[in-house]
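Hey,
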Amino acid sequence: MRLFISVLFVASLGSACVHSRFSADGVWIGTARTTIEAEGQKLMKSSVYRFDLKPDGTCSISVESFWEVDGTKTVDEFEGSWEQRSNLLTVKYNLLDRKNADAKYATTPRDWNEVKHVFHIDALGKLLNGTIDEAQVDLTRN
């Protein structure tokens, strides 16, 4: 009996160390400055990312970008899904699912437009750290 209780205690302690103690649902916001290459030029943009993670595993993603070359401001919104495993958060969406898109057809296959971001959750659950467009992004809960 003592052995059983000891094993149960160790197993529950190990489980508490591996599994996250909170759910990441809620609104997370972060900024990044990225460079893209278009028509032989490098274009810089500053973006604000907003991830609204709903408890049912769906999410809304909003990306507000300011293009430094001409001062243009763009806003893109997507619907997607998210899942949390231990201290990792994965967000998935498809660029073809952009809200209010002008085009009624796609010129590229759907699987070419799939986006997946993986964020590490800090020990306190207050910061998500990951990479978007090769730029380091820290998201904080809003």
